[in-house]
Structure formats: structure tokens, C-alpha cells
Amino acid sequence: MVLTALRRVARSALVVLLVSFLVVALLSLAPGSLAEVILGENATPEAVADLNARLGLDGSLFQQYFDWLGGAVQGDLGTSLLTGQPVLQTILERLPVTLELALLAQIIALSVAVPLAIGAASRPGGLLDRSISALSSMFLSIPAFVAAPVLVYFFAISLQLFPVTGWAPLSEGIGPNLQAALLPSVAIALNEIAAFQRLLRTDLANTLREDFISAARAKGISSSYVMLRHALRPSSFSLITLAGLSTGRLIGGTVIVESLFSLPGLGQLVSSSITSRDVIVVQGVVAFVAVTYVLLNTVVDLSYGLLDPRLRQEATR
Amino acid sequence: MSDIATPTITAPAAEAAHASTEPPSTRPRRTRSVLVWLSFGWLAVIILAAVFANLLPIPSYSVPVGPPRQAPSWSVDTLLGTDSLGRSLLARCLYGARVSLVIGTVAGLCGFAIGTLAGLLAGYFRRFTDAVLTYVTDSLLAFPPLILLLALSSVLKPSLTTLLLGLTFLVIPAFVRLSRANTLVWTSREFVRAARNMGAGDLRIMSREILPNVLPVLAAYLPIVIASLIVAEGSLSFLGLGIPPPTPSWGGIISDGKDAIADAPHVVFMPALILFLTVFSLNQVGDNLRARFDRTASES
Predict the structure, then answer these.
(1) pLDDT tens digits, residue range A270-303?
(2) Nearest chain A Cα to B238, which residue?
């Protein structure tokens, strides 16, 4: 068990190194030199050389990488070309908004998907199951950039229940904060609802065929109690994993809604930095998100064994 | 949205258990087949319309045909209304279908070819090849998909080529994993051992014995991957990082219309509906093919 965990951690460490190398190597993908891309076509050669030196782009790729890694380990992801602010500081300022959106979306997705899955699994193949299956196929096919404008039209413009754009931090009270965060979260939650519902429905349907369920039913326990107390827990492990893994996807999804609703999060930081060619910020955010994602996956993988006793034994095989 | 290029792909062995315990009678057959036929129908319509867009009696996608943001009406020019510049939305959506479908299909096929080959090598040779390819795949999967695309578009100029390159990159890891897992299963089968004992070389075993078994399974995932790529391209265009204007793509049309949504919702709703129907149909067809060809995957 401990050995498996250690191997998993070592593997993740290697992936983190590879990921950060890819992020640094990305900058060398630019046609010509990066400084030329940043400064535009009319830049003087001196200005280009100067910027290249400032970006540390005059060394070899490996030297660039070790310079960058050395800084990153000490929390220095460089400074923005545009504002001169340290990148890490900007990221940490923006992070709460994105985290709140992702978390809220996750809560919405789970609280909709779990009842739907229970309803669908209670009579596999029944009318309810088929309707829910069709519904979740629909949800799966609605990307955030389609859902968001449609939600805005109905709930913000026609019914005027929510603001069309803008953000209210938690310090302005929980009401306005939730009002600003709800529509964007729902827009990115739709896909998750469908994915969660499908997975949990399959797992529940399988669990319900186990002997211990028949035993519980034979004892005369009501089906809703069997469903909630006996079937749900052993069926929810893959769901927990998927929920953990999909957090990375949600962070990707926030780019769309943050730009549409103009919310001051990480996603908007990336898209605005791309427009203004502030590559150092883009590099920093991408590295930050990717490394967080890898670490998160590792934690999810490790906790999987803790949650499900059956897997602990399999892992030691 | 950013469920892009990550169709839930897991090791077949784990899912095989699921499939075998699911009695066939519990599968929602009748509804599915109706939906699947409707999906095939819609895909046929949209593909034909995209292919023959320049033969259809529709106006050009770049020239105004009426006042801006005109509501849909019964005339060919303005069947879906006009956009913020007075251009025909019908024409823009059909020409946009070309861009979106071509990008999705080409990137999907490239990723399919490269990913299948890499996965085949990893699963067949194991050891060093496997370790290297697995680490590279894991690292690529460590980027949330849209973030990877954004990172690429920050250094490369938006054009058809860079877009295709980025999207291909996006789907390779999923195909590598799937191909590797399937290769592992087939490599341990008796007929592969028999072929080896008869003196067949690695190349022959891979191309004649394993690949024909792996290909249909992977091809069954193509519609779902193409759907996710259409969404990915749409997301990029929505952020203004897709195909440069005036060439229309579905994401771009939605993005152009989003500021006018309060007065003229059709400029967003029409392209959104077409995109939704296409993605939905591709997913339906894909689910159906997967259930038919991928014995290792669970139902649905």
C-alpha cells in the first residue's frame, strides 16, 4: 500500500517536471523569436535583442528551463510584461473567483446528477430511465459557449433575475456573490451533470444486482432505504474520482464564462493576456493550472484506496 | 463545455466486468434507435449542405442581404434572419458548417492515426517504449484541454493550420490510451502467440493480427471525438482565437451575435441550435457505434 502510494507520487513528480518543460518549450514554438512576436513586425533589432535577453530567451532550451524551474520552485513565475506585477501574485488574486465558480458548478452538478442517477437506476430500461438518459445526452451536447448566452437571454435579460455581467466578491455579501456566480456555474455544470449521471447510473445498476442488495430487500427493508444506505455508497467511488478529475476540465470551462460574464478570474486572465501577448502571464497560469491538476489527480488516486477497502487489497497484489 | 477530446476512456479490462453484468434487455433499445436514425438524418443533411453550400441557392456569406439583425422570415436569404452586419445567417451557418466539420474531421482523423500507432507500439513493445509514451501522454493529459489550446494560440498566429495542429494534439492522448489498452488485451491472445510461433515478425503481427482488431473499436470513438473537436473549435472561436474573420465558423457566429442577444436573440439561437443538433447527433451515433463495436466498453 505504502509502496504503491510512493510509486504513484514519484510518477506524478515526473509528470510535473515534464509538464513544466512542455510549458517552457511552448515559448520556443513561436515562429521566429518570441520577442518579435511580442513587439510586432516593426520592432528594431536592438529592441528584439533586449527583450530576448530580458526573457532569458538567448540561452539554450534546457538553460531556459532550469532558469525558469529555479524561479518557479521559489514562487517566482516571472513578471508580467504589461503591468510589471509578479505573475504568481496576479494568479493568487484571481484564483478565488475561478475556484468559487468551479466549486459551485461541482456542487450544482452533483446535486442534480445524483437524484437523476438514482431515479434512472431504480428501474433500468424504464420510461424514467430512458427520459433521463435522453436528457443527459442533451446536456452532454451543450457546450458552455452555447449554454451561457442562452441562459443570459432567459434569466438575465428576459426575467432579470441575475446580472448580465460583472462580479461581486464574497465581501459584498453572500447574496450578490451567489447571484453573480450562479449563471456562469450552471453554464459549465451542464456537461458535468450528464457525465456524473451516466457514470453513477451504471455503477448503481451494477451494485443493485449484488447479493447483499437482495439480502437487504429480503429482510424487508424499503427500496428507498436500500438505495440510499446500501447501494449508493459502494457505487459512488468512480463518481468521486470523476468529480476530482473533472475539476481541471471545469477550470478550462471557466475561461469561456469568465470572458462572457467579465468575471475577474484565472480564465479571463489567460484570454486577456493572450490578446495582449503577455506570454509570461500565459506561461505562468498554464503551468500553475497544469501542476495543480496533476497534484489533484494524485490526491484523488491515493484517496481512492482509502475510500474503498476492496481496492486496498487489489493494490497490494 | 470543455469536455473536449476526453471521452471517458478507461482500461477495457475494468469495464468488461460492467458490460457482462448488464443484461441486454435493460438497454433502452427502441428510443435509442429512433434517436439514432434521426441523428443520422440530421448529419446527412448538414454534411450535404456543407459540401454543396456553393451550389445551393443561398446568398454569399460575406455580403449583406438586408438590414442588420432582421428576424427570421420565409425567404431563402433570411430564413434564419440576418446577423449584426446584415449578412444571411443561413449562408453563414452553412458555410460555417464547412469550417467546423472539416476542422473536426481532419483533426480527429490525424489524432486517430497518430494516437493509434503510438498506442499500438506502446502496448506491443511494452517496457521502454511504453514508459516513454505513457509519460508523454500523461503530461499532455495534465493540461485541461482548453488551456492547452489557449497556450498554443498565445504563441502561434491563428490560422487553419495552427488550429488543426492544436486540435490534433488535443485528441492524440485519448487515442493513445485507448489503443494501448486494446493492444494489451489482444497481444495476450492465443492467435498472436500462434503467429509468433509460426515465425511472424513484429511488424506482421502488429499489422495483420492486432491492428485489424483494434481499429474498429477506435474508429467507433471517432464521432464522439469529432463532436468534442467541433466544441473545442467553437470555444476558441468564441474567445476570438479561431479562424480569422470573415470566414464563418459556428463558434465565431455565436460570438459575433452575443452582444446583440438582448434585441435579436436569433443571431445566437440559430447557430447555437445547429451546433447543438450536430454535436448531439454525433454523440448519439458515436454511442451507438461504440456499443456495437467496443465489446470492452460498458453500455451507453
Answers:
(1) 888 887 777 788 888 888 888 888 888 788 777 7
(2) A145
Distance, in Å, from the CA atom of A65 to the CA atom of A18, rounded to the nearest integer, reads 11
Q: Where are the alpha helices (DSSP H) in B126-159?
A: 127-141, 145-155
Please tell me the distance from the alpha carbon of residue B97 to that of residue B274, in angstroms, as a whole number: 9
Q: What is the pTM of this model?
A: 0.81
Q: Check whether the bond before A184 is cis (ω within 30° of 0).
A: no
Instruction: Quote the CA–CA distance of B104 and B237 in Å, as a whole number.
Output: 13
Residues of A with CB below 8 A from B279's CB?
141, 143
What does each of the 317 residues of chain A score in pLDDT, given as a tens digit?
A: 677 778 778 878 887 888 788 777 776 666 556 666 666 666 677 777 777 776 666 667 777 788 778 877 777 777 777 777 888 888 888 888 888 888 899 999 999 998 998 888 888 778 888 888 888 888 988 888 888 888 888 887 777 777 777 777 777 777 777 777 888 889 888 888 998 998 888 888 888 888 888 888 888 888 888 888 788 877 877 787 788 778 777 877 788 888 888 888 888 888 888 877 777 888 888 888 888 888 887 887 777 666 666 655 544 43
Question: Torsions phi, psi of A86, nearest 5?
Answer: -60, 135
How crowded is residue B281: how many other Cβ atoms within 10 Å of its Cβ?
A: 24
Say if the Cβ atoms of B154 and A15 lie within 8 Å.
Answer: no
Dihedral sign, Cα of residue A101, residue A102, residue A104, residue A108: positive
Measured distance CA(A173)–CA(B97) in Å, rounded? 45
All 3 cell numbers of residue B291? 456499443
CB A311 within 8 A of CB A262: no
Q: How far is B276 from chain A (nearest CA, A)?
A: 6
E strand or H helix at B185, and its extent?
helix B160-187
Backbone torsions φ then ψ of A226, nearest 5 degrees: -60, -45
Residue (of B225, B220, B278) closest to B45 by Cα position:
B278
